[in-house]
């Protein structure tokens, strides 16, 4: 599940960067994309579960998830608008560190020195991947800061939805959270949506549909299930493979070259993830 998520996310960085540089305004793009994804999830839940109800005691976590996802999308689209996809991918490697800090602060996860060692090795690998892309990392300072916001808010979102997975399906969580986040995104981007030129061509619209149904709808379900099984810190650590996968896509689809530092970086990323993995203890039988 994580490999599928990582693959789609890697494509999404390139796809979103392309869309935003070919006529779509950032918040107009997010508004349309989230509207499509929200409709899909609401239809699925209403058809299969017959209710969107969330218990009152779970509303604080839902509100945190909604706010985090709203800020995440603002940071994501503007980071990709102002700097390159490779720089954003590098910054997103800090997500597991934010998730770990949130886990420690909320006492929801216990992280061993082995995890921290794996995180350090994995992050070093991400740095090598970025350096191999052109010898240095270039990016607008504002875009870099927005990338950090994107990483921190995604870790917050993942940490908030993890306990909700014990009581609700990923479809219901997605239907409620994405719909509410879409309202906030739509209000934030109302001016851009009104002034957007919609004559963008079939290619841009096809890529938008892919960005909504693949990297948003499908990955939300798979990501939630991964969070439930291994926890947010370890799941986000595995996402460090994303920059290397994106480089592989560039080689295959764009005929770019894969430098030796990128290959070494990919190996370090994989080694860090393997080192940080820790099996859950077997459940204690209940008499």
Characterization of the model:
The protein has 287 residues and is mainly alpha-helical. It has a domain at 2-109 and 140-230. Helices cover 77% and strands 0% of the residues. It is built from 13 helices and no strands. The chain starts with a helix and ends in an 11-residue tail after the last helix. 48% of the residues are buried.
Concise overview:
The chain has 287 residues and is mainly alpha-helical.
Would you tell me the structural class of the helices and strands?
Answer: mainly alpha
Cα-atom radius of gyration: 19 Å
Roughly how much helix do the residues carry, as a percent range? over 70%
Total beta strands = 0
The topology string of helices and strands comes to HHHHHHHHHHHHH
Looking at the structure, what is the overall shape?
globular
Layout: helices, strands, pairs:
Layout: H1 2-20, H2 26-48, H3 59-82, H4 85-92, H5 95-106, H6 113-132, H7 141-164, H8 170-188, H9 190-195, H10 202-230, H11 232-238, H12 242-254, H13 260-276
Helix pairs in contact: 1-4, 1-10, 1-12, 2-3, 2-8, 2-10, 3-7, 3-8, 4-7, 5-7, 5-11, 6-13, 10-11
Notable characteristics:
single chain; 287 residues; mainly alpha; 13 helices; globular; disordered C terminus
């Amino acid at each position: 599940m994580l490999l599928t998520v990582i693959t789609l996310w890697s494509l999404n960085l390139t796809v979103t960067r392309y869309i935003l540089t070919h006529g779509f305004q950032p918040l107009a793009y997010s508004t349309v994309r989230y509207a499509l994804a929200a409709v899909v999830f609401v239809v699925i839940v209403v058809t299969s579960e017959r209710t969107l109800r969330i218990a009152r005691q779970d509303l604080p976590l839902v509100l945190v998830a909604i706010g985090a996802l709203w800020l995440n999308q603002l940071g994501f689209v503007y980071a990709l608008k102002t700097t390159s996809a490779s720089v954003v991918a590098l910054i997103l490697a800090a997500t597991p560190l934010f998730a770990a800090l949130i886990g420690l602060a909320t006492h929801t996860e216990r992280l061993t020195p082995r995890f921290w060692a794996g995180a350090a090795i994995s992050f070093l690998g991400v740095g090598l991947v970025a350096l191999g892309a052109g010898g240095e990392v270039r990016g607008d300072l504002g875009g870099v800061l927005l990338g950090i916001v994107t990483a921190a808010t995604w870790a917050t979102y993942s940490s908030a939805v993890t306990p909700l997975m014990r009581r609700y399906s990923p479809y219901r969580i997605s239907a409620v959270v994405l719909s509410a986040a879409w309202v906030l995104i739509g209000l934030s981007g109302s001016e851009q949506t009104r002034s957007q030129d919609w004559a963008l061509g079939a290619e841009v619209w096809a890529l938008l549909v892919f960005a909504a149904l693949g990297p948003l709808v499908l990955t939300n379900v798979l990501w939630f299930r991964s969070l439930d099984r291994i926890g947010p810190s370890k799941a986000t650590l595995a996402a460090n493979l994303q920059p290397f996968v994106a480089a592989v896509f560039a080689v295959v689809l764009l005929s770019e070259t894969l430098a030796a530092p990128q290959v070494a970086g990919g190996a370090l990323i994989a080694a860090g993830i393997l080192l940080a993995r820790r099996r859950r203890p077997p459940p204690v039988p209940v008499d």
